Hints:
Elements: H1 2-20, H2 34-52, H3 58-71, H4 76-88, H5 92-105, H6 113-123, H7 127-140, H8 146-168, E1 187-192, E2 198-203, E3 222-227, E4 238-239, E5 250-255, E6 261-266, E7 271-278, E8 281-282, E9 286-287, E10 302-303, E11 310-311
Amino acid sequence: xxxxxxxxxxxxxxGFSAYSQNNxxxxxxxxxxxxxxxxxxxxxxxxxxxxxxxxxxxxxALEYFLKASELNPDNADLNFKMGICYYxxxxxxxxxNYYNKAIQLDSNVSEIILYRIAQGHQFRLKFDxxxxxxxxxxxxxxxxxxxxxxxxxxKRIEECNEGKQLIENFVGGLVVNIANVNSKxxxxxxxxxxxxxxxxxxSRRPNNNNDDVDENGRLFEDIYFAKKNADGIWQxxxxxxxxxxxxxxxxxxxxxxxxxxLYLYDGKKGNILVSELVEGSWSKPKALPAPINSKYQExxxxxxxxxxxxxx
Length: 312
């Protein structure tokens, strides 16, 4: 019954799109002036260049897509790509707004638009709605990689069902944004010492080394830390500085229980590094020996409290 209902909605959207929505292409006739058209095309093409570079460049792509959208907010493909960019730059909630607008402008904007809409509902905890869209998506998807999408969709539906159970059996809890630690930029991979007094994490936020950017003009990742005060409140985060932060990507992947060893990922060579806290200062990071590091990439590490066992 739900699938039938959603099929009706999809058919309705197709008709609705054909008669009530206006998918405006990036053509001169759709702009107020040639100047606006030239600006929009420049923003769009620059955003597309970053978009083609993959997930790591989606933040830059979104920056230009937003500028293009100011001049043409009613292009289905642009709205779809903006939804993708928001999703992969940790703004899952915002992504659904753009997916919905994209499908209203053009119901055929993407073969996976229903899957993306389902994801948006899932992250808003609208699990039943998400399951409906996941089911509708896979029932209509017929391309050669269907088996892969079946596996992925089944996994997502399982997550939704588990989410429903967790909500039904909720016993209390609170998620709080640590305002002094978080920023509007990408902050990830937090590590907290065993005594819960210090947090180390990775961020792309601007710092004193504004020239420290990659080939795409994006800031390299740096390591930051924050401490709790006597009242248990996290204080403002600070850049950990040299010698841990370099002119390349520097990321946290592990901290010892006593907080005196910090494990880092060397983005240039793909190795695991370790730095030791000696008399209040961090030593220059050194690569762990073989067989921990190899000719391949080692991107994560876990270890026993006594530090004698390492798991990669």
